[in-house]
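Pair request: fold both.
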Amino acid sequence: MDSTISIASDNGSTTLASALIVLSGAISSLSGSFLTSIDTSQLATDLVHLGQNLTKATTAVNQEEAERLLSNATWVASNLELLTSAVGRIPEESRNGTSPDDLVAMVTVGATRFDIFSTWAPDSWAIGLLFLLALLQQLLMRLLLRKKCVERVRQTGLKNEQALMTPESAEAILEHPVRGAIGHGFNMILATIALVLQMNAWNLFIVPEMSMVPEDVKYLYGAIKIVLVGYGAELLFARSHIEIWAHHLLAFGLFFVGEMAQFETQSPKIFRMAQWMLLQATTDQLMYLAMLFFHLSVYVRLQDIPNSSEHGLLSASWLTMVSSAALGFPLKLVPAGFGFYWLGMMWKEMSATGWGRFWLGWCTTLSGVLIVLQMYFCDQAFPIAAHLKARLNGGPLPSHKGPLHRL
């Protein structure tokens, strides 16, 4: 019986189909006394049929596997030229010394196309955020400009012998601090969200390494969209000075054109410069908070509410603005320094192409003007802090010139 149940082999490799056929023969040779309750002849026949079917299935599977391998080889051959072209679009300076993983990340970013549900890039989400800000602004305006609040302002004006104080004029007076408080509150929240996204893309802060992953670019794109939407909302809903208008429009021009330039040049250094330059816009929380406290103090003062928190809000505004003034120049100059470092690196690799030359000239000009405006804003933080202190303690109002302006 040992010779009967030996398993056949084909070219030295045992197959399940041949094993089942041999097993069926072995079962047929068993004595009935061993398997009294089993129809051994039927079992042997079924095993033979199963072995034959498995043989046919194995042949079909082998043919399908061969076709799959051939199809994969054809796909690789047809896309190899596209892959070579994608790598070739990356500037040579950025390719040299780059690890395979980082090179794959660069190609992935360059080949990424957006769909409508990509929250980090398409304009549809930016438009949705803008409408959300508009809705919240209107709701807060209605909440803070209730008839009761407007009537308090009117009564305060009448006490001060302002006989022409109508409900409409009282509402207009109260609307100014309300808009200021809402605008600075929104800016503080949006800047904080954008800063969190930037921290998630921390690889883009590393100097001079070029390591990156596609997720870093997604976080950066999201942060840029949030900041630009906030700037657009401020231009729409707030009464901004000409310097604020110039800053926001130039920032939009820098980042919007920068996104197109990166698509055309495929230089990963644009991401790194944008990461550092954007940091100047996402670290203004103290200034926004100080102005929020100030506008709230004016809102309370105009209503002449007994036992109000006007003094506490004004004190908080002054202390926060002093901190903002002390940190202003370092928080602007350090990111600008690293941003211009990457701009200098781009001059080495992008000046040979038309898009590269356009971007370098555009970026250098706008970045230079933006830095001048940022220095002006940092300088103005000092007289604003002194002005708040004079309001808090009384006395003559100080000069509106900051230390840099006086020099």
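--- second member of the pair ---
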Amino acid sequence: EIENSMMMMALVAQPELLRQILEEQGRDSEIESIRGRIMQGIIEPEWTLGTDGGVRYKKKLVVPVKCQEQ
């Protein structure tokens, strides 16, 4: 389950934007909780970690609210 404070977005990211999103994912407690559940294998299979370590839902990068506000 996800709070409404996150939005799933499909995007083709430029390297700087991707770096910012990945950094903010690490600061977001809800995303970090999801990351932990992915690593433990106790979350729905739609949630994955990309090769860059970013949390993804249905193969789309999860963008933290703070990044959406910028």
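Observation on the second member. The chain has a mean pLDDT of 85.
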